[in-house]
Amino acid sequence: MDTGQTAFILSQLVFGALASFFAIMLWSKTRETVWVLIIMGIFAAYIETIYSILTLFGFIGEGFVPVGSVSLTAILLPSLRMIFFMAAFCIMVVKYKKG
User: Fold this and answer.
1) Residue 15 half-sphere exposure, CB side, CA atoms within 13 Å?
2) What are the CA-CA distances from residue 55 to residues 12, 67, 70, 84, 95 (Å)?
3) CA 43 to CA 47: how far, in whole Å?
4) Mean pLDDT, residues 7-21 taken together
5) Quick check: 64 and 41 in contact, CB under 8 A?
6) Mean predicted confidence (pLDDT) in 14-33
């Protein structure tokens, strides 16, 4: 592993941990649906980062259920993050349309 890859992994871990920490702090202050969905999206992004790093180092296999040449987990984790963000944005659009 070269220096660039190490810096990339460390930056993903550090910034993801900070984002998750601040998300937990925000979660204890608010119970609004939109913010909870955004916080869940942050958690899903950090879980995706951890999963990809563990897969890179060989601690876990490529996936439990293969879908062609890609594991189901590798498909679901990025999608889950986007689903949470899309749901939050849709709720905000509906809120602003109602007035």
Assistant:
1) 8
2) 15, 17, 13, 24, 40
3) 6
4) 94
5) no
6) 92
